[in-house]
Amino acid sequence: MDTSRKEMDNIGTANRQTLLSQQVTGTRYFFLDLAPRDRGPLRPALGGREHCNPDYAVNREGYAYAGLEYVAEGEGWIKLGKAKHELVPGSVFTYGTATRCEIRTNPEKPLVKYFVCFAGSGATSRLKKAGMGLGRLRTLVTHAEMRGLFEELIHDGQRPRKLARSICSARLELLLLKIEEHFEQGTRRNDPARERYLLCKSLIDERAMEMTTLDEIASAVSLEVSSVCRLFRRYHDCSPYRYLLQRKMTLAAEDLVENGGLVKEVAQRVGFSDPYHFSRCFKAIHGVAPRDLLRWQIRLVDATQLTARADNSPKSISESPSNIRQLIDDV
Does pTM top 0.85 for this prediction? Predict the structure, then answer.
């Protein structure tokens, strides 16, 4: 089992309650390096997305990690040390292990925020280079791109893969570079149309499993369907519906490869009630039917197991491989 998954399993209820707020819903977290230490390069320790409840409140003298948070929606206020700041969409703030932090949300406009906490060394210097420093708040004039960057970081952090830590370290650096670029170039980057496009794109990235129509996308960003289509024509290489379909099929492929299971169940998880229509869409995007992808995965697992058995035991490799073979018969 991947070490990051072991660490996640060993958090325990008490530690989880200490690290994470209990006054949130709609959460998505990842855990990669839960032993706070200052050795090695800067990298993500944990992070996630939180929809704050109306009674959300933080009042702490310090924290186990230095971290950075981004407000995507809602309003509230924060005290970092003795300085009090308003929280609005686009607010980015940081804290160190000894930073006194107090946060409240507006009950009528609850905060939706993303966060990443750091392991390794160099957090202070890297944040200063990005225009932040520890214990500071700044506001991004254009910020929809940040949501997409955090969603990708969470997505990769939740995958139990050998390279998850390396990939997430690269995504953290990209996140900091984008913040640095924003503050270096200032409002010259302000492009309202591009900002609306990035907001549409990030919402599709975030809610691809549940969204099914262009009307839902347009309604979520308070735009007409025709406006969303124009934005994608201008800034993207395909229509918004095509992009939504691509995201659904990417998530479906990852689900099939990582978890196996019935094709019809995977179809339902990404919003398709008809498994045959799902299979046609899957093949149109990936060039292979989901059933064939499962067959390919079985061959790969068989070959890996045979190699491992040959390496570890010269006696017999004729036993039946993993019950993943049974999946095809159940599709």
Answer: no
Please tell me what DSSP assigns to residue 238: S
Tell me how far apart the alpha carbons of residues 135 and 146 are, in angstroms, rounded to a whole number: 20
Residue 109 has a CB neighbour count (10 Å cut-off) of 15
Count CA atoms within 13 Å of residue 78 on its CB side: 23
Q: Please tell me the distance from the alpha carbon of residue 97 to that of residue 61, in angstroms, as a whole number.
A: 9
Give the single-character DSSP code of 72. E
- What span, in angstroms and rounded, lies between the C-alpha atoms of 46 and 235? 32
User: Would you mind telling me the total number of residues written for the chain in this entry?
Assistant: 331
CA-atom Rg of the chain in angstroms: 22
Q: Where in the chain is the domain with CATH 2.60.120.280?
A: 3-190
Fold designation for 3-190: Jelly Rolls (2.60.120)
Higher pLDDT, residue 229 or 14: 229
pLDDT digit string (tens) for 90-115?
999 999 999 999 999 999 999 999 99
Q: For Cα atoms 278, 279, 284, give the angle at the middle one, nearest 5 degrees.
A: 100
Find the angle CA(210)-CA(213)-CA(216) to the nearest 5 degrees: 75
CA–CA gap between residue 179 and residue 128 (Å, rounded): 11
Burial of residue 230, with CB atoms counted within 10 A of its CB: 0-12 exposed, 13-18 middle, 19 or more buried: middle
Rounded to whole angstroms, the Cα distance separating 157 from 167 reads 8
How confident is the model over 5-59, as pLDDT tens digits? 344 434 444 354 567 888 998 888 999 888 766 778 899 999 999 999 999 999 9
